[in-house]
Amino acid sequence: MNDTDQGEVVRLAPVTVQQALSDLSAPVSSPLLADAVRRAVREGSATTHDPLPDDSTGRVVEHDGQFYVVQRVAGTGGWDPVARTIALTTLVVVGALSIVLRRE
Prior knowledge:
The protein is an alpha+beta fold and 104 residues long. It is 38% helix and 16% strand.
């Protein structure tokens, strides 16, 4: 992005689907992920009594070449409308990218 007298110039650079998913995801070993998220990747789901960090919902996680989207299925915290929108958008994007990636 460059600053000019008339505003900012933005350009797009092409990336592969695999690169986009890799850039968006966190490895399952990342210390940024909650323990419950790591357990969910290993076991398919996890229950925790510790509150999930706000940025957990909708996060893309990579494990052994597979990509997963963290979803809060049930809980007492309820869904923040912004978090719900982010989670749904991420799920749609990852789903679409995985379909495209399978075709390549």
